[in-house]
Amino acid sequence: MAVFIALLDDDPADRKQSERLLSRERDERVKKGEVIYYDSYGSEEALLPSFMKYDLFLIDVTGTTRDGMMVAVDLKNRGAEGKIILYYDKIDYRAKYGDEEGISFMQKPLWQKDFSRLIDIAREVHENKTPRIELRGDKDTIYVTKDEIIYAVEQGYYVAVALTGNRSFHVLTDMVTFYGMLDPKEFAATSRTSVINMNHVVSSKGTSFKMADGAVIKFSLLDKKAITKKYEEFAKDKR
Fold first, then answer.
1. Dist CA 16 CA 5 (whole Å)
2. In which band, very low, low, confident or very high, does the pLDDT at 50 lie, cut at 50, 70 and 90?
């Protein structure tokens, strides 16, 4: 199992020290078969594009009009599932703002034993998080649950993914790679260029499925037997 940690600190010296201690702890954990990934950021803007993948955030921002607490609250409002810890010296966030649900506080400096405990927290969070699928586009990356995917169709150099909530996203990949990220027990390939989430099928007729968003996904008559059999077995098991 791998855990992912984001370090956001706009003080270069403090950030570098935290990187050193994280690296030491990561190397120790490798000996035990644990995999630790961490990314270090100097600004909120750099962190935001990929914040959903992190199991733990270690944050201290003091050099802008938005301090660490403002960043932490914004991450929560955006749906971040990782544990957020504000570590501080210049700004005592708890004294300034009071306690905030889902946010913890630690005073600098942190020591090696502190990072060992932080990684244990990240591991526990990771074990309890809802698994998400990373979808990389031309400029953005989003993280969705399997249940958010209704169907997907390959269109040239990208795969167009229809999502719940009347959303869509273009993933820079091919259908073979995209289908490999999905659970074949719940997803079915209806052609070489299309795949459906069988949980979102409203009805099946002839050589097509009507999906929850109203789209009709067609498949070949030659593939009808195999595809309908897979869907019928899925529907039977789901009952």
1. 15
2. confident
Measured CA to CA in angstroms, residue 26 lies from 5, 30, 73, 110, 119 at distances of 11, 6, 28, 16, 9
Structure pTM?
0.80
Q: What is the mean pLDDT of the chain?
A: 95
Q: Are 103 and 84 in contact (CB under 8 A)?
A: yes
Residue type present at position 231 = Y
Single-letter amino acid, residue 93: Y
Q: How many residues does the chain have?
A: 239
